[in-house]
Q: What sequence folds into this?
């Protein structure tokens, strides 16, 4: 009898939606198995952490107040009065950081396996845009507690935008909602963080995921060249999906452990007329850029030091995003070591400067 | 069927023009809305920040000058100097470092001497100075 209900329930929907196509599509989807298969999981992990961000973000919205006078106090309230408020905020912060980390790992794995090559250029570009957006989420979210560290990090970060020639000044005022970082900046960042960026991110994520489904998993070049007989693979459903879910479970545990054992600090409320305290640091994923700005002298040729730094980082980011279009060798099926060297240089540079930043 | 090219072109321009005008009508107010209005706070020309005997030699005081933070430094020989406390590098707020005898920015390790001159680190320009006036016991700071 019970089974019958299920059947009728299923049939009612099947009549209207025709599940057949979807099931057939899922049954046909295979994931290549090779020595680099582990990297396939990081996209999924990033997605999982993004889902955690959406859920905890909505929960935080129920109590957070986005104004200069109330922001800090409302988070204090969340952390001390609201049941499990400390946990929700801590999970949101930890998961945000892990999401950026997972996105970086995913990006570098795609880079080194040349998975960006034709026909996956759009997947790569949307992925890069989402990575930048994730950093934007981090930057805007960092200010929302309106504490001292965040206040000065935002001053520096938005001032960096301001030194870009021509468009810098209007952009700075647009970001800050005026000339200085004030309550107006907080309102804007709150709006960007919870409305504008999620909207853009959702569209990009939709395109990214549809393309991954449509084109299937990318095969590494060495694997692609193997004879069909030697290629190993596993069905996406249920084999790969179950492994994916297992990974998600592990990540959930890591997030929970970090959130409980190292609850996120709130710090001291921002005072716009106090000196910047020693030890001002941005989030770790901006550290290598922040540290570079410390080393560039005040003037280099006819550039101001920071203008040069920003122009160099912008150019590097643009070139990186466009790699599928200028890496002609991979496109022609030739081997190229340059891409590897460049990738290794980028990773070493990022790690070295980040470590230096924390050692100081 | 014969197509009257003139008519078609006319329609193309009318339609294209209308769409452009429509887009402008929608986006102009949005772009203008995004620009923050100029704040109408009264222009500050001078502020009283404290009394001479409150600030010992070789120390400093942070104060508010309109919407900007300011720093007053009293040197070892008792001289007062005041500057806009905004670092010329990337907008952080500077502080007086007594042990080093400099004005220091914690964000990128920029240093200024007690005349506000950028002496080390990334700041490209000196700090903007204010004029310090002592009237009786009161210290006034004003724009130069």
A:
């Amino acid at each position: 009898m019970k089974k019958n209900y299920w059947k009728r329930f299923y049939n009612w929907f099947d009549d209207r939606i025709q599940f057949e196509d979807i099931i057939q599509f899922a049954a046909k989807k295979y994931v290549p198995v090779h020595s680099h298969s582990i990297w396939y999981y990081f996209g999924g992990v990033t997605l999982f952490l993004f889902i955690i961000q959406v859920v905890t973000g909505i929960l935080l919205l129920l109590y957070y107040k986005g104004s200069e006078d109330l922001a800090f106090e409302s988070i204090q309230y969340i952390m001390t009065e609201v049941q499990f408020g400390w946990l929700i905020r801590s999970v949101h912060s930890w998961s945000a950081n892990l999401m950026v980390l997972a996105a970086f790992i995913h990006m570098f794995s795609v880079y080194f396996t040349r998975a960006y090559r034709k026909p996956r250029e759009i997947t790569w570009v949307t992925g890069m845009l989402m990575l930048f957006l994730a950093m934007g989420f981090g930057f805007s979210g960092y200010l929302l507690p309106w504490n001292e560290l965040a206040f000065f990090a935002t001053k520096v970060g938005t001032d960096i935008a301001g030194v870009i020639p021509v468009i810098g000044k209007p952009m700075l005022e647009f970001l800050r909602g005026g000339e200085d970082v004030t309550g107006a900046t907080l309102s804007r960042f709150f709006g960007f963080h919870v409305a504008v960026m999620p909207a853009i991110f959702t569209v990009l994520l939709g395109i990214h995921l549809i393309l991954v489904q449509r084109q299937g998993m990318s095969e590494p070049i060495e694997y692609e060249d193997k004879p069909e007989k030697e290629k190993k693979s596993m069905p996406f459903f249920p084999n790969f999906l179950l492994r994916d879910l297992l990974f998600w479970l592990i990540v959930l545990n890591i997030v929970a452990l970090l959130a409980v054992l190292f609850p996120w600090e709130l710090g001291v409320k921002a005072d716009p007329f106090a000196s910047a305290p020693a030890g001002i640091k941005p989030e770790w994923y901006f550290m290598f850029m922040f540290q570079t700005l410390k080393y560039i002298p005040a003037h280099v040729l006819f550039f101001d030091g920071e203008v040069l730094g920003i122009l160099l980082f912008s150019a590097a980011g643009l070139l990186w995003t466009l790699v599928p279009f200028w890496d002609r060798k991979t496109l022609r099926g030739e081997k190229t070591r340059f891409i590897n060297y460049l990738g290794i240089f980028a990773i070493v540079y990022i790690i070295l400067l980040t470590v230096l930043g924390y050692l100081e | 069927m014969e197509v009257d090219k003139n008519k078609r072109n006319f329609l193309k321009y009318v339609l294209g023009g209308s769409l452009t005008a429509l887009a402008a009508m929608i986006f102009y107010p949005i772009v203008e809305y995004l620009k923050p209005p100029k704040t109408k706070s009264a222009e500050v020309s001078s502020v009283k920040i404290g009394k001479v005997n409150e600030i010992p030699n070789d120390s400093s005081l942070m104060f508010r000058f309109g919407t900007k933070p300011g720093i007053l430094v009293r040197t070892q020989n008792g001289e007062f100097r005041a500057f806009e406390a905004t670092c010329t590098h990337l907008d952080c707020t500077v502080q007086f470092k007594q042990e080093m005898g400099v004005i220091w920015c914690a964000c990128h390790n920029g240093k200024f001497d007690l005349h506000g001159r950028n002496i080390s680190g990334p700041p490209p320009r000196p700090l903007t100075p204010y004029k310090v006036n002592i009237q009786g016991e009161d210290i006034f700071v004003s724009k130069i």
User: Anything to note?
Assistant: The interface with chain A takes residues 34-36, 39, 62-64, 67-69, 71, 85, 89-95, 105-109, 118, 121-124 of chain B (CB under 8 Å).
